[in-house]
UniProtKB/TrEMBL annotation:
Cellular localisation: Cell membrane
CDD domains: TM_PBP1_transp_AraH_like (cd06579)
UniProt-recorded name of the protein: Xylose transport system permease protein XylH
GO molecular function: transmembrane transporter activity
Keywords, ordered alphabetically: Cell inner membrane, Cell membrane, Membrane, Sugar transport, Transmembrane, Transmembrane helix, Transport
Biological classification of the source: Bacteria, Bacillati, Actinomycetota, Actinomycetes, Kitasatosporales
Organism: Kitasatospora kifunensis
Residues annotated as transmembrane: 77-97, 109-129, 136-153, 159-180, 187-207, 227-248, 269-287, 293-311, 338-363, 375-391, 398-416, 422-442
The protein's role, per its UniProt record: Part of the binding-protein-dependent transport system for D-xylose. Probably responsible for the translocation of the substrate across the membrane.
Residue span of region Disordered: 1-35
Membrane topology value: Multi-pass membrane protein
Length: 452
């Protein structure tokens, strides 16, 4: 191809190898002076990048309000929807019947949500990957049956029976994780098959009678039914929670300041700690007005705190979030995707076993209906309603507590009002749909704001 002689050289085209390259003329005010090797001048007044959070926090209360509006408008809702929903539910049922907000009902509610909440913690892990586990109900029933048969029917040491039941849940999760991560079978199909298969195995373990009644003196029953009547127990737990939160917040702020990254000021930490203290001591006061601190609730909170630490403060937790956010990016970053997936499904089934044991202790038996009914839907709904995204990459173990409280409050309030199960199912389904819609709209808003 011949070059047009009328075209200026700096704007012409020339052949370089097999590729055609076009030269572009730079504006005169951007051309360096002093020859080819002259240094390019730097702007006289360079504006350093400033984190917007620092500007907001320097503005005081007005800045925080502006930051709150910005987060809401950009779809960063956090736990706000579920907290507002819980307030509305309690206000409605409390106005309909004063016994709903009584210390006795709230104390019973704190025990009743433990079984489903434990299962929901495991579901949170799977949802963080953007996957689903439809077998948690059957796994919970199977592990409850294993414990009951070993402890009651065969007289095995109760601690050994407990370990075998929990190990059974872990093995089930490992098997399903291998089929999903190694073989490549979709998690929906693997766990749907598991929902049927593990339910059949549970019926086989229970045998011809179909029901095994717990003695009420076993370790699982004691974990569920024990209540610490001393007021110092509930107030001590509240104090421990507040102190732990304050210490963790101050430590995190210190580490971030040392690293030269934005951190929460002491005033904000103090305000957050005060808000938490109000909630904790109010809960402790309510529990002490009835019988005291239920051990089941304490165990539930310990699981939440420990697994929350695993997710947010360890390398393993960051890998779980990375897989949920962008699996291909995580793979290219050197994360062992297969191992993380298998481990997450193992954790999920293990937590299903824990929840199944508490549910068996609640009704004092393991039967053919264990793990059935609406347990699966309630566990998944608790995780989603609590704020865990169905699309992966966003959620926390506290979602299980908040979601279980919402579902448990709806069921408790309707039972007090004498409404049928049909109405309960419809309202719970509506709440679940609303949670998913809010999650979808929040993601869309975040994408529009460039934050997803």
């Amino acid at each position: 191809m011949s070059e047009d002689p009328s075209t200026p050289p700096e704007e012409g085209r020339f052949q370089e190898g097999r590729h055609e390259v076009r030269r572009h003329k730079l504006p005169e005010d951007t051309m360096p002076t002093g020859g080819v090797n002259a240094p390019v001048p730097v702007a006289a007044e360079a504006i350093p990048a400033v984190d917007p959070r620092l500007i907001v926090r320097q503005e005081g209360l007005a800045g925080y309000l502006g930051e709150f509006r910005r987060r809401i408008s950009s779809g960063e809702l956090g736990s706000l929807p579920v907290v507002l929903a819980l307030v509305v539910i309690w206000a409605v049922f409390g106005s309909l019947n004063s016994s709903f907000l009584s210390a006795q009902n709230l104390s019973n509610l704190s025990q009743q949500i433990v079984g489903t909440g434990m299962i929901a913690i495991g579901v949170v892990f799977v949802l963080l990957l953007g996957e689903i586990d439809l077998s948690v109900g059957s796994v919970s029933g199977l592990c409850a049956a294993i414990f009951a048969v070993l402890d009651v029917t065969h007289g095995v040491n109760q601690w050994l029976a407990l370990i075998v039941a929990l190990a059974g849940g872990a093995v089930v999760g490992f098997i399903q994780g291998v089929f999903f991560a190694r073989v490549g079978v979709p998690a929906f199909v693997v766990t749907l098959a598991g929902n049927l298969g593990w339910n059949g195995l549970m019926l086989q373990v229970l045998g011809a009678n179909g029901t095994v009644n717990l003695s009420g003196k076993d370790i699982v029953s004691r974990l569920y039914s024990t209540i610490y009547a001393q007021q110092i127990a509930a107030y001590g737990l509240a104090t421990a929670g507040v102190v732990l939160f304050l210490a963790a917040s101050l430590l995190d702020a210190t580490r971030r300041r040392s690293a030269g990254v934005p951190s929460r000021p002491v005033a904000e930490i103090a305000l957050r700690t005060l808000a938490l203290a109000v909630v904790c001591y109010l809960a402790a006061y309510t529990l002490n007005q009835y019988k005291g601190l239920p051990l089941a609730l304490l165990v539930f909170l310990v699981f939440i705190v420990v697994l929350d630490f695993v997710l947010r403060r360890t390398g393993y937790g960051r890998k779980v979030f990375a897989l949920g956010g962008n699996i291909e990016g995580a793979r290219r970053a050197g994360i062992n995707v297969v191992w993380i997936r298998i481990s997450v499904f193992t954790i999920c089934s293990t937590m299903a076993a824990v929840g199944g044991l508490f549910l068996a202790a609640q009704i004092q038996s393991a039967s053919q209906t264990s793990g059935g009914g609406n347990l699966l839907m309630n566990a998944i709904a608790a995780a989603v309603i609590g704020g865990t995204s169905l699309f992966g990459g966003r959620g926390k173990t506290w979602s299980a507590l908040l979601g279980a409280l919402v579902i448990g409050s709806i069921q408790s309030g309707m039972n007090i009002e004498g409404l049928s199960n049909a109405i309960q199912f419809m309202i719970t389904g509506a709440v679940l749909l609303a949670a998913v819609v809010i999650d979808s709209l929040a993601r869309r808003t975040q994408k529009a704001a460039g934050r997803a």
